[in-house]
Amino acid sequence: MSVTIDDIRATAARIAGQVVATPTVFAAALSDLYGAEIYLKLETLQRTGSFKDRGALAKLLSLDGAQAQAGVIAVSAGNHAQGVAYHAQRLGIPATIVMPKGTPFNKIRRTEAFGAQVLLHGEDVSAAEPHAMALAEREGLTFVHPFADPAVIAGQGTVGLEMLEARPELDCVILPVGGGGLISGVATAAKATKPDIEVLGVEAAMYPAVHNALAGLESVAGGHTLAEGIAVKSPGQINLAIIRELSDGIILVDEPALEAAVVEMMESAKVMAEGAGAAPLAALAANRDRFTGRRVGLVVSGANIDSRLLASLLMRGLTRAGRMARLRILVPDEPGHLARVATEISNTGANIIEVYHQRLFHDVPAKETELDVVVETRDETHIRQLIDLLTERGFKTRRLGDTTRTG
Prior knowledge:
Blueprint: H1 5-15, E1 24-26, H2 28-34, E2 37-42, H3 52-61, H4 65-70, E3 72-75, H5 79-91, E4 95-99, H6 105-113, E5 117-120, H7 125-139, E6 142-143, H8 150-166, E7 172-176, H9 181-193, E8 198-204, H10 209-215, H11 237-246, E9 250-253, H12 255-267, H13 275-286, H14 288-291, E10 295-300, H15 307-320, E11 324-332, H16 337-347, E12 351-358, E13 368-376, H17 380-392, E14 396-399
Parallel strand pairs: 2-10, 3-4, 3-6, 4-5, 7-8, 7-10, 8-9
Antiparallel strand pairs: 1-2, 11-13, 11-14, 12-13
Helix pairs in contact: 1-8, 3-5, 3-8, 5-6, 8-9, 9-11, 12-13, 12-15
């Protein structure tokens, strides 16, 4: 093996005190919900909000004096960039990060705040990497790969060491998979510590690179996924060899599952997770029978989700759960009917959030108007009751987003 348990233990000793030894906590609400004993490894508590701190630091500590003085370069659109930049600044090592041109400004700003020079190049990480490699060659910089490096793998493997030290009774560990650095390290540590433990990876269905490689299938990847942290088109060969030997399988999860998992982490576990960080919960939720009654550790790999996106996901989650709905109500365009509708809604215990009074731009009779009403409700049954009541009172009502519900 290119990375051994001894490598990981030695790395754990080197990085001790410089990264957070994150807790592995019991998730009572999730355990009750899914019928398993669920523990969360909260890598969200690292300084940069991601497990990437570990591998980045491990690599930087492996540099000799000349390499450290010359500096390092990395390619990333997010967590790896911040991990490298933060620890390079701490250690006094010059750092350059090449990011795709479309990288959100907040990620660029956070990386620059850690003292790194940020260069924008290419449309995605794959296009940016050749440019970074050319700069590394020309300027004598050390390239810090996000996953295909033994030092990085050993750093990420310390996650597995800590989990099993905290919870040696675990039957299974589920963790997100992008290029394979995290699962390579964790599988090495976990299997050496407890050979019968099951180690499962999770990929976004849009980016099934490791899953397809293990199955001998063509790698077809692309699209806008919520789990951009694991949106990798090709795994590292060093990673793939370890995954093939030590992992127990890869689970693919689709976008609705990822979205629901981010919301569930917030609502039930009270943990903010980015899409990749919630992917293990998405896999468990989609395969709950497989994990019933077992002791399962989920690696919550990162918390770096855009606040506007998170707000949108939470609102969408309320809608899916039947706790919020937008109703379109046809009423006579006469005084008093808006008040009547509001009273009827209030009498059911629903709460009106917003009202849009539409007169001019809809295909409705001249003496009628449409009300779009956003309401808070208890559940789907409550919504159905509300629609039925309004219809009985003479107000034709349907739920927007589901045009089959016409009252």
